[in-house]
Amino acid sequence: MVSTQAAEAEAGQPPALTIDALGKKCPIPIIMLAEQINYVPRNAIVSVLADDPAAFTDIPAWCRLKSHHHVASYELPDGGWAIHVRRNY
Amino acid sequence: MAYFDAASTEPLHPQAREALIAALDVGWADPARLYGPARRARMLLEQARTEVAEALGARPDEVSFTSSGTQAVHLGVLGALHGRRRVGRRLVTSAVEHSSVLHAAGVHERDGGSVETVGVGLTGAVDPAAFRAAVLAEGTALACLQSANHEVGTLQPVVEAAAACAEAGVPLLVDAAQTAGRMPLPGGWSVLTASAHKWGGPAGVGVLAVRKGTRWRSPLPEDDRERRRVPGFENVPAIVASAAALRAMVADSARESARLAALVDRIRSEVPRLVPDVEVIGDPVSRAPHIITFSCLYVEGEALLTELDKAGFAVSSGSSCTASTLRPSHVLEAMGVLTHGNVRVSLPQGASATDVDRFLTVLPDAVRKIREDAGVRS
Hints:
The structure holds 2 protein chains of 2 kinds. Chain A is α+β, with helices and mostly antiparallel strands.
């Protein structure tokens, strides 16, 4: 699930918004994402920083349910992930 | 209180209770001894063994009673691996097996063996072709596959897995804990495990069946009980009660499973209609008759269980906040479905349509209240 360098290059696009949900338990990271994704333009990337293991599964699942795009999840050096989501609509 | 957690444990069947009380009086002696009361205990034990074997599609001499379903799995997995040590050290399992299988696999790995985990799709079923490929790989000593998943109810392709195992000459362990007594078991297993309290027997009785001709060696110190497969003095009264419960459940299962499956269908179709932002999880058709699981977006699982408990419903959840480990369920993770806001409803025998209707009335308000408290706008 964690992307390789090639996929990273392909994903390319820097996030338009970073949501710091480190230390927050699910479903709070998803609630923050669902609210704040509306602040970025269509096709922009939102990066969610989260370290609750549930977020690693739940953010891609939320994207599938809400028809947004899970771009990739990058491991953070101090634990957790930066989970990149593209706003589709 | 409406009890909707049969997948954790089925309430004691009235016939099991009756059999248990009777057997406490007449089945207390050591079945390994030769005097009258011992012979009577042995006769009760062997009669229970014959009945359980028949219900599970095994021969009586293939069936041993353990102290739990978990112990049956531990002995089944480690004993089959031990028996095939010279053939190979490779164990194949699905990613969504019960923790007893995964923990036994962990012991095997720490002991220098290898474990190949076959992933599952969105419905929770393993792909038969991927399972076959894993089983056919060189050095496979044992493959494990559950009959149905304990968290989402999806049936696994046991028939196809058994065919692949037969082709590869690899024994297949089928963990039938969720379906034994509720639906006919597929054949083709080499080792079968089950748990009596899931079919309405008392706690403390598991079943380990080892097909004749399957290599199996106890991983534990030697003991003479249960054909040298299970150590310790048998709990004859509980075993007798377990056989009575299984007999009763099998007698009713065709009719009762169809009735419960219809109630589950009703929950499956109504929950997404009544509650916004819900994902219903598991295969809609190929499933155990009594289990239905769904996840509610933006809802903390523990908060929902508490609300439902207040409203008089006992249900379970695979969400991380409800687990002692604070990790989400490995089953939901492997499926790639929502792990928070998760509710598993599993209907016991006799669950009433009225209670199911009341559940469907209470659930939308419970979810709405938790979302409002969390500041979620819908």
